[in-house]
Every structure is written in C-alpha cells, then in structure tokens.
Amino acid sequence: MAWIKRNLFFVIGGVVALLLLGAAAFYDYQGWSRNTEKFDKLNEIYGTLKQLNDQKPSPGDTKINNTQTAKDQEKEIRAWIEQTGNYFKPIAPVPNSAEVTSEAYAAALRRTIDQLQHEADAASVQVPPKYAFSFEAQRSIVRFAPGSLAPLAVQLGEVKAISEILFAARVNSFDSIQRVRVSDDDVAGSQSDYIGDPAVTNDLCVLTPYAVTFRSFTPELAAVLAGFAASPNGFIVKGLNVSPAGLAAPSFGGPGAFGRGEGMPGMPPGMGEGFAPPVSPTPAAATGKGGLQPFLNEQLLRVTLEVVIVKPLPKK
C-alpha cells in the first residue's frame, strides 16, 4: 500500500492506459467484424454480377443496356396487346341487359328474327320461308329452361352479327345457320339448327363455333370473307366448303363434324377438318373457231363456313 501511495499517479495512469487499450481492442474487433461482413456481401454481389454477365443474353455493359432494351420491348408488347383488343370486341347480347327475363327475351327474339328477315329482303337475299335463324325451338315459347336466358341472349346477338355480314355481301340465298346447344329447350328443336362441337374455354378466351350455309357466286363469297376479316368482333373462318349449288350441303354434328376427319388440302391439320375438297369451276366448252373462248364458266356455289368467335376472358 505504501508503494501505491507513493506512486499513485503512476498507478492511475496505468489503469487508464489499460482501459484505453481494451477499448481500442474492442473497437478494432468491431471494425474487423464489419469489414468481414461487408467483404462477404461484396463477394456475393460480385458473384451475382458475374453470373448475370455469363448468361445469354446478359444484362449488358456500358455500351449495350439489355435490361432497358427488355423494358422497352415489354412496352411494345403491351401496346400491341392493346391494339389487338380492337379486333376482339364483344358482340352485344340481345337483349342487352344485366338481367334477362323470359318476357324480354321472347320479345327480343321475335323482333330480331323479323328484323333479319326484313334486312334479307332489302339486300335481295333469299331466306327459307318463316326461317327462325336456328331459334325455332325458342320461337314459340315464352318460358325458357332455367339458366338458359343469358347464353341464349349472347347467341342471338352473335347470330344477328353473322347474318348481317352475309346480307351486306348480298349473297344469293341464306340457307341456314347452326349454333351450339345451350338450353334444354334445344333438345326439342330441329337438329339442323345445331352443330355437335361445343364451345371451348381456355386460359385466355372462349371459342364459340357456328356453321353458316349460303349460296352465291365467287364475288359474293369474297365479300363475305372480307366482311369477317374486317369485323372488330373476333371472327375466325376456320373451315370452308365450296361445292356446286346443286349438290347436297354437308351435315354437322356426326362423324364428319368440325374438328374430325381429314383436313382440307393446303390447310394445316385441324383447319377445316371434316370438309370435302373445294370444287373448282369447270372450263366452259369451246366455241366455234373465230369466237372468243371463255376461260371460266361462273356457276352458283353452295358454301358452308365454320366461323369461330373469339371472346377474350375478362382481365383478372
């Protein structure tokens, strides 16, 4: 104790120095731990960057920014999707209301059939007498099968749109249109009003098939195809059968229905399957010497189209 008293200042200085050394060691240890952590993080970032640069394609470099290029291409794709939406606009149901009643649909059906018949007369298109445009089963009733009014209203609007394209092309005659059965009432209807193929729903859209048969010459047929191509309602002509008007029309819903049998020559598999090959116009008989010889003898054709309506599903 005496020595400590004689060297008090020395002892105090030694203790302070020892504490300072301990604090410095602790500070160095913390710094070393942080440096080690940052170094490991840097190595991880470097490894990720090297992995990205080794990919094909890579994010780019100072001259080429592939990341920005990908973002720009994404914007272009989204803009293209928005533009294509103009070609797949939905067809308004008839009647066009949130809740369809039996009375409203019965009145709209009679009114639409009458309107289509008048439009056919105005375009000089022959229609079978008292033709119901595939709604014969619903034409004479006022109470409809439960749950069928909404799909029937959609079909009535689609049948109206298809028929009006043929009337605008001024075909010679409108023979029939066939649709998918959507109601229990359709069981009692004429079998010639329906096709055997069902509507198909995938992740993007609903594909609803129709079959329409008419008679015309080649200019009117071209106008019909142009009308479907120019329509904003997503019509796709999937199958085409052309034969002389004197031959019987093909039937649908049986073994030769759409989607089965052999495809048409020159078309990919699945397109126009079940149809007979188109009949080419036959050359006219040669006239006497010195007269003009016609290259083709135009004749009335019976045409059957399989038309599919593409209806995009609502965005989620």
Structural class computed from helices and strand pairing = alpha+beta
Which CATH architecture of the largest domain?
A: 2-Layer Sandwich
Overall 3D geometry? elongated
- What is the CATH topology assignment of the largest domain? Alpha-Beta Plaits
Low-confidence stretches: 250-282, 284-288
Radius of gyration: 38 Å
Mean pLDDT: 80
CATH superfamily of the largest domain: Ribosomal protein S6/Translation elongation factor EF1B
Helix coverage percent: 40-55%
Q: Main beta sheet: strand number and arrangement? A: 5 strands, antiparallel
Distance between the termini: 87 Å
Q: How many separate helices?
A: 7
Number of domains: 2
Number of strands: 5
- CATH top level assignment of the largest domain: Alpha Beta
Could you state the order of secondary-structure elements as H and E?
A: HHHHHHEEEHEE
Q: Beta-sheet strand percentage?
A: 5-15%
Task: Describe this structure in a few short sentences.
The chain has 316 residues and is α+β, with helices and mostly antiparallel strands. The chain contains 7 helices and 5 strands, in the order ααααααβββαββ.
